[in-house]
Design brief:
Strand content: 5-15%
Structural class: alpha/beta
Shape: globular
CATH architecture: 3-Layer(aba) Sandwich
CATH topology: Rossmann fold
Helix content: 55-70%
Number of helices: 7
Number of domains: 1
Radius of gyration: 14 Å
CATH superfamily: 5'-nuclease
Distance between the termini: 21 Å
Largest sheet: 4 strands, parallel
CATH class: Alpha Beta
Order of helices and strands: EHHEHHEHHEH
Number of strands: 4
Amino acid sequence: MKIVDSSFLIALYVEEDVQHPKAARIFEETNEELELPFEVLTEMLTVISGLKGINEVNLVFDKIKKNNQFVIREPLSPDSHRQILTFFLSQKQEDRLSYIDCLQVVIAKKENKEIISFDKKIEKAMKH
């Protein structure tokens, strides 16, 4: 199972996004379940709310809930968040990721999973 990043999801659900065709193709070609961490879900819905409004957020959330390909991961435990915070605070300025991006990288590395993302910093972090 791969983890999906908000950059991929935003491109998938916002047709005006320049990455939309690429996201739609990747999604169509993916035959496995996709893990959506709850924290990433909330980040993505917040961005879409700013771009398109709350009505669009509700439509997107309904699409995600009804699509069996997405598995929404429950919020992480306080212990997991402490580990992620440690990683977040240890970053170098030039390579820094957002907290939610750190969350995904820590989960992916710990569980040996890939991340579907259009974020170059996440791709770089996954290689280290």
